Predict the structure.
Amino acid sequence: MNAMAAVELHMDPHAQFIYELALAHLELRALGVLSEPNATLRLFRAGRPVDPEKLARRAAYIVAIDRVQTVYARLRQYNRTASVNQYLSHWFYPYKGKFHPQMVRALLNIMQLEPGNTVLDPFIGSGTTALEAQLLGIRCIGVDISPVCTLVARVKTDSWRVLERVLAYRDQYEVIARAAEKAGVRLHLPAEEISDDDRVWNFFKVAELIAHSDRARRDRPFIESHVANIKRMAISTQDMLDARAALGLHFGTADIRQGDARNLPLETGSVDGIVTSPPYAVTLDYIENDAHALRALGYNPLTIRENFIGVRGNRRDRMDLYLDDMRRCCTEMYRVLRAGCWLTLIIGNGTSEARAFDLPALSIDMCSAAGFEYVRTIEKPMRGRYGDSNAESILMFIKPPMGTVQVR
């Protein structure tokens, strides 16, 4: 591409909301493009992109440059689902409260994170931040207190490394699974009977968790769902390898840890950015939603509730406990983030049975008290996903001093 020539930057036709246009504009500025959309809000014209090759590699909301597809537009074609956002391994496990992958990619760009930098998600959930960082060559440290979340996040980001071993065992595993069903016994294979590599066992376990979810939510036959998930997951994992080769990607590493955001297992000033979505207070019961998966992993949902932010305590004191916990999380995020780097929170409004609360405003107060400098809010509709929460806010902060980071 000729960096001196004017180029047309085509907005993703799937983008429907004002917040997506705002993110596209901020993303372009962070990638060195100063341009405004035309009257259709679907096209940006840029005279001199600073680095058009970088723009093509990294952009999330721009899907074509002079009608040449960007890397992200091509990545989304590696999709085995009916949802445009569930490409590659993003679809593994039906986690409620899942991030929008395109939004995460844009935020990583806006935060000016580069290959080799480290981004932290202290509430990694199902691993969306880790996978999008991996695709951009950025190292991700993902922390979550939930054993379900850490397992799923590892499988999404690690399985491409062990696909040959998975395929070598797949047929044998299916025979054992069907035999267990015929005998009327629960399938239980210790990890060492599958492979000496935990990543292989993890793959089959997540396929089992999806089958438990399919049975609980959709009344699907367990073994048929389980076997189908193994095959489908293997195809999507092969897609990871194919995409890496076809698009010349250099995957970043994903370091997924079971831990507590209130006491992060990280050194002070050791990460270059944080993007996360904290628990939605009392609006979403993460234990209840993943109870079937927790039981399948050998956990009692009732006994681990008190470890989880937002669900511990009784109804009367739950909100106060949540705010105390989140203050500790804000302090920890401030501690581990390098000075001059970005923190981005995606948080929803909501109500508890006891009272209404403005969680974005409370989050701004808590982060400011921890030492962060508040920069901006981008409002995001929730599309009626869960609870009484009907909107999300993307909150962006920076840890002073500013250093060489320019607020955009």
User: Anything to note?
Assistant: Residues 47 and 107 are 24 Å apart (CA to CA). Residues 159-247 form one domain. The longest helix spans residues 222-247.
